[in-house]
Amino acid sequence: MRYGDFTPYDLVLLLQGLGVSVALFVSTTLIGLVIGTLWAVIRFYRVPVLSQVVAFVAELLKNSPVLVQLFLVFFGLPAFLKINVTPTTAAVITLSGNSAAFIYVIAVSAIESVGRDQLEAARVFGLSRWQILRRVIAPQAAAFAIGPLTGLLVNQLQVTSLISVIGVMDLTKVGNILNLRTLKPFLVWTAVGVLYYLTAKLVAHAGARFEKRLRAHTAWKGL
Amino acid sequence: MKFDLSILAKHIPFLLEGAWLTFQACLLAVIGSLVVGLLVAAARTSASPLLNRLSAIYVDIFRNIPFIVQLFFFYFGLPEIGIYIDAFTTGVIAMSVAGGAFTSDVIRSGILAIDPGIIEAAQVSGLRKSTILRKIVMPIALRASVRPLGSVFINLILTSSILSTITLNELTGSAKIVASQTFRPFEVYFVLLVAYAALTWFVSILISMLHRYLNRNQAEGAV
Predict the structure, then answer these.
(1) Domains in chain B: how many in total?
(2) Which of A5, A169, A170, A191 is buried most, with the most CB atoms less than 10 Å from its CB?
């Protein structure tokens, strides 16, 4: 006897998958933000050798399929270094690195968007290098970067679906399981698609709200 | 373990076979997404509210749902409604439909950037609507959007690696086979990563050349 019908538990399974997807998305985004910004700061200070290495690695990560990066970390690293890599670890490493590479590009152009004259003025006032970065560049660069960053995050959310291929129980993997059990592809994949769609819209909406707040100081307040 | 690339030598013909399949799929998908993109962009910028709305919904849906979910939707869903096609055709269709959404957005912004005076001049010259679209609007819009179109197509090449999940042995799929035959996943996937990066780099150079060729008559400085 086959259990081919949908059960109420399937809904729980779908939501569980969504939870895994969102959790991995949020954590890898945060890690990617830290690493990407760090790379951009390295470039900003023109650290010799390191800044070239960073630029090269970012270029390599941006120009290769995430699936291949995932296979390299999940299948390649354990065989090469004789270590154990669980699917989740591989997913976190790959997605963080991938996000970092794209965030690096955004952060670099955001830092460059702050005019040189402002830096000179800040230096004349006697601000230290750290103070310039923290008080002058960071607030303006953040307001500049938030738009492209939102676009990137909507994209990265979709990239997380690839980790189902190495066996992480995310939304796509749950969809795959339900599809094979119920053999109702249209229903299952539509449900999965709708969940991804709503999450993407939520991310875009949150990004727009946040941008408004960061740009509040430039908004017209009336005379 | 030692990093040894020489073991890959005898698998190169097999990998090249996969690369050839990737090339075919990408070429067809680029053509397909260009056709879809042109039609949708024309609908998106047309005066008809219905076409406008429909095309906006299409773009919104296919941009916000992960490609792998769309691919599974087609791969498992089409046989359900009695359409039996092979994995290659399914992959090309899915890539064309998904790529078409991104392409149409690029072309649409190219169309919106056209000076309204040009279109008005065409209208008062008594040209028919279809002639204006074919001979005036599209050439200008396409010429201006070669670069962004190029990055969409590069993304499409990277996306094509996902086709390996529906049993299609393109470059990534055949690399998977080689990795399991040689037990050297690290070397295989590392080479694959570099190969994809080199491929996209080469394509981006071609796109720059095409851009310069098509815009050779533009004014100085209007790169």
Answers:
(1) 1
(2) A170
Is A57 exposed, middle or buried, given 0-12, 13-18 or 19+ CB atoms closer than 10 A?
middle
> In this structure, what are the phi and psi dihedrals at residue A82, rounded to the nearest 5 degrees?
55, 50
H-state helical runs in B45-82: 49-64, 67-80
Q: Which of A18, A22, A64, A69 to mutate to test the interface with B (most CBs of B within 10 A)?
A: A64
Does residue A17 sit within a domain? yes
Q: Of A67, A118, A56, A117, which is closest to residue A95 (Cα–Cα)?
A: A67
Q: Say if B129 falls within a structural domain.
A: yes
Distance CA B220, CA A3 (A): 69
Residue B210, judged by CB atoms within 10 A of its CB (0-12, 13-18, 19+), counts as middle
Amino acid type, A81: L
Does the beta-carbon distance from B68 to A59 stay under 8 Å? Answer: no
Of residues A79, A164, A165, nearest to B185 (C-beta): A79
Residue B1: inside a domain, yes or no? no
CATH code at position B117:
1.10.3720.10
| Residues of chain A numbered 90-149 and touching chain B (CB < 8 Å) | none
Q: What is the rounded CA–CA span in Å between residue B42 and residue B110? A: 11
- H runs (alpha helix) in B81-170: 87-112, 116-124, 129-131, 138-144, 146-159
Q: What does each of the 223 residues of chain A score in pLDDT, given as a tens digit?
A: 567 788 888 899 999 999 999 999 999 999 999 999 999 999 988 888 999 999 999 999 999 999 999 999 999 998 888 888 999 999 999 999 999 999 999 999 999 988 889 989 999 999 998 888 888 888 889 988 999 999 999 999 999 999 999 999 999 999 999 998 888 888 999 999 999 999 999 999 999 999 888 888 777 777 7
Q: Angle at CA B62, nearest 5°, toward B197 and A166? A: 50
B215 lies in some domain: yes
Structure token digits, residue B76 = 């498992």
What are the tokens at B221? 């400085």
**CA-based Rg of chain B, rounded to a whole angstrom?**
21
CA neighbor of A17 nearest in space, from A185, A184, A179: A179
Residue B117, domain extent:
6-220
Type of residue found at A118: Q
* ipTM for this prediction: 0.88
Q: Which of A59, A81, A161 sits opposite B66 (nearest CB)?
A: A161
CATH code for the domain of A23: 1.10.3720.10
Token pair recorded at residue A216: 């509040």
Asked if residue A221 is part of any domain, the answer here is no
